[in-house]
Amino acid sequence: LSGVERTFEKGGRAEAALKASYREKLLVVDESSMVSNAQMQHIVRAAERLGIPHVVFSGDRRQLSSQEAG
Questions:
Q1: Residue 5, SS3?
Q2: How far apart are CA 12 and CA 35, in angstroms?
Q3: 52 and 69 Cβ atoms separated by less than 8 Å
Q4: What CA–CA distances, in Å, run from 44 to 9, 32, 53, 67?
Q5: What is the pLDDT of residue 24?
Q6: Nearest to 1 by CA among 63, 65, 59, 55
Q7: Collapsing DSSP states into helix, strand and coil, what is residue 68?
Q8: How many CA atoms are closer than 13 Å to the CA of 33, on its beta-carbon side?
Q9: Cα separation of 38 and 61, whole Å?
Q10: Where are the alpha helices (DSSP H) in 1-70?
Q11: What residues does 55 pair with on adjacent strands?
């Protein structure tokens, strides 16, 4: 996601090309039980900026939990 943020900082054609490449895509985050609330929020915000219409978090509650809160 840091690469996405750097591209948005540059703006212009790079940002437009990045948005176009993600339009109408589905973002799947596997093993999301290991992702903190703050990390999930970061992922969702990045998806919104990229125009990704759907984000799916999948995981197993019986596996290891996140290292951070959430």
A1: helix
A2: 31
A3: no
A4: 18, 13, 10, 19
A5: 86
A6: 55
A7: coil
A8: 8
A9: 18
A10: 2-10, 12-22, 37-50
A11: 27
pLDDT at 56: 95
Backbone angles phi, psi at 55, to 5 degrees: -125, 125
Residues 18, 14: Cα–Cα separation, whole Å:
6
DSSP for residue 27: E
Q: Is 39 exposed, middle or buried (0-12, 13-18, 19+ CB in 10 A)?
A: middle
Residue 28 has what pLDDT? 95
Distance CA 28, CA 69 (A): 21
What is the mean pLDDT of each successive set of 10 residues along the chain, which is 70 residues long?
A: 77 85 90 87 90 89 62
